[in-house]
Amino acid sequence: MDLQTFFYGNCFDAYEYFGAHKSKGRGKRGFDFRVYAPRAVKVELCGDFSDWKPLPMERDEYGIHTAHVTQAKPGMTYKYLIHRDDGRQVYKCDPYGLQMERPPKTASIIPEDLKSYKYHDQQWMEERKGNHTNYGRPLNIYELHFGSWRRKEDGSWYHYDELGSLLIPYLKENGYTHIEILPLSEHPLYASWGYLTSCYFSVTSRYGTPKQFMQFVDECHQNGIGIIMDFVPVHFITDDFSLQTFDGHPLYEYESQDIAYSEWGSCNFNLYKDEVRSFLKSAANIWFDYYHVDGLRMDAISNLIYWQGNEERGTNDGALYLIRGINYGLKQMHEGIMLIAEDSSSFPKVTVPVEYDGLGFDYKWDMGWMNDTLEFFKVAPWDRKNHYNKLTFSMWYFYNEKYVLTLSHDEVVHGKATILQKMWGDYEEKFKQARTLYTYMYTHPGKKLNFMGNEIGQFREWDEKREQDWFLRDYPKHDMFYHFMQDLNKAYLANPALYETDYDDRCFRWLEIETVEECVYVYERMTVSWDNRVITALNMQNIYYEEIRIGVDEPLVLEEVINSDDSRYDGEGRVNGQIEAVAQEYKGHPYSFGIRLAPYGSCIFRVIR
Hints:
609 residues, elongated, alpha/beta, six-stranded antiparallel beta sheet, single chain, 29 strands, 22% helix
């Protein structure tokens, strides 16, 4: 690490200098410790190596405190004792520590040499370089919380290297290309799901060691599964042992009380300080550098774009400068990675490269699509004609950004009801509509993200203290819904029209968008060469249509790929099979074909000639 680069805010590898590192030099034993605390009266080092008696640290002109400890070894715990100018003495964990004690303990741990881990994912990493952000490739993300996907029989957590043997086969057999993991940076409050971070450079010790996590990533890559990590660049916890008033004064946070705290009661990072910019750039980069992850999903970006997330307060120029700097720098260093924004604002050019005055993300969560869609499915069927445009509106703005369609953890917690519960009607009707909801999602342009448990039709809201209700698959309706989702995922992967041209407006067209009373929608997706074409029909009414006529300009032959009313999925079996368009004029088109649509039914066709 170059100190000048660090103090200019352009450093992406500060973790190589700060923290605990094995002493270099011939015959030199032990570890060197470095911490940045410019306004501390003095800093002392305490740890297992000194029986927790304070050891002096030498301060340089920049406010960096250094100590060499010959007796220090990997696995020993340590903290810094900060002497403040108000007379207080506070023990702090290492801001750049690479490993932490398992909460509720809060000491940093001297790590093993993490660079000594030998990856076996060279083929994956080489192929990733040519992906160019996956725009033309399928991206079907399974979002999960590591500690509550599955648990051991005694209720304890699986370690990183243990869960892979269960998770990887599940992902492969269900057609997921990537997983997105809720934040794994160390955090003291388990109920925060990792969004209230204490140490940005430490993989949480709840599930094992950093090398065990490396092994997990390595095994995923060897099995063709990508890893996206949740990253929280907006705010951090207020606990005394962490970053808040680290040297007795605001070091990582803003000085002004008006902007110092977030809406979650945490501290906002001061993004106008170069040292903080280097801290966050390095915290983002370590996931790619040490852990080989394939992407970052950055949380609460609207709270960076606007002061306190409030558009009326104006844009936060320091934050915009940081975002562009992180995204541009990471892209220069790691070819083929993905950077994803969770952003609920309408700020322009979020997914435009920095070179063209954008924020430099590859994708943005489509929060508008998610809200409109779920609100529509809550409406009683007889009133849906009055909300018909909720399902067409997304295509008016879709090509402004590179969107990911998400039904994430945020939609199934804290009184929000699960996806299945959100569907209008009784038990039977909820399953029918959920199948059509997902048909709509997986055939709509945009990459896909679905939270764990959604695929089994879970009724219980997500609780981080419990594993998913896997017993539901013992009930036929849930098991058939699971198999519907499995087949839908595979149909998505098998048809390039559903992913290859997501962001090309020439490759989507409405075939029927005027059947408001019937509440039916029909649209077509195609590749640029038209060698793969997919037509989708959706019925949002509780009415059986023996024939819905659709006009086309060619004598097409269609083969049904999936019908949500198939008896395999607990339907009545009112499927279509193969259909041929005939020379019958309809709505100005010389050819037309008719399809049957079950109540709340949906079907997907592939054009075979």
